[in-house]
Specification:
Blueprint (H helix, E strand, L loop, with lengths): L13 H32 L9 H18 L2 H16 L11 H12 L19 H17 L6 H17 L36 H4 L10 H7 L1
Helix pairs in contact: 1-3, 5-6
């Protein structure tokens, strides 16, 4: 799953690429090329006759391998490799998700890990949870936290259960919570209506020019100053 690029996050421009190019190129030249060279030489060496052990033949063999690698790794392929390396450094690929969607996370994880008696006294649940907007939003937040904390080899799972799973699910299944009026035992599905909202007065939340510029909306009070200078 790939999210749209956030505002302000642009691909590496020419200036960034040019700044990183020497470092990446040096790494490719000293690291990757050496590894490829050694791997190819070792592979070919295992298929040739022992006569190659002669100093002259070994030198010719190494020269041929180097020439072949030079012909294979052209300037165009080197530039492609450098651009790919720069892109991977600045914009690493997103880690693979454990669950492919919210439904899988709820059915295969939440429903199995967070087991409660939903008899209507201390906890409520609805089999049609996906039609309750507050529940969907809460579970989406929970899923995001799960995918983040599961990659922490230390206390990530502990933090997720303590600060994520338990408080969110306790709030979701509370009798006075968003599932109020539902009954999982009788398959009763009764979504609550949105909170009532009166019409917002025009301009109430529009920022003033002073707020936009981070400046006070009124000039400072100079009364005391004028009295002292009078």
């Amino acid at each position: 799953m790939t999210d749209p690029m956030l505002p302000g996050m642009m691909p590496p421009g020419p200036s960034i690429a040019e700044a990183l190019r020497p470092l990446v190129e040096q790494s490719l030249a000293k690291g990757a090329t050496a590894l490829v060279y050694e791997a190819v030489k070792a592979k070919l060496t295992s298929h040739i006759t022992p006569s190659l052990e002669a100093v002259e033949l070994l030198a010719d063999f190494e020269s041929d391998v180097k020439r072949g690698l030079d012909e294979l790794v052209t300037r165009e392929t080197s530039e492609d490799a450098i651009e790919t390396a720069i892109s991977d450094i600045l914009f690493p690929p997103e880690p693979e998700l454990y669950f492919s969607n919210l439904g899988e996370f709820v059915e295969q994880y939440v429903a199995r890990v967070y087991r409660r008696d939903v008899q209507g006294t201390t906890h409520l649940w609805c089999a049609q949870w996906f039609e309750h907007e507050p529940v969907v939003v809460a579970l989406q937040v929970l899923w995001t936290a799960f995918e983040t904390y599961r990659r922490d080899p230390g206390v990530g799972p502990l933090v997720f259960h303590r600060d994520g799973l338990l408080p969110i699910m306790n709030a979701v299944t509370h009798p006075d919570g968003p599932l109020h009026g539902c009954d999982a035992r009788k398959n009763v599905h009764n979504p609550l209506p949105p909170l009532p909202c009166a019409p917002i007065p025009p301009g109430l939340f529009e920022p003033t020019p002073g707020e936009l510029q981070g400046m006070p909306t009124a000039p400072p009070d100079r009364t005391n100053t004028d009295e002292r200078t009078a």
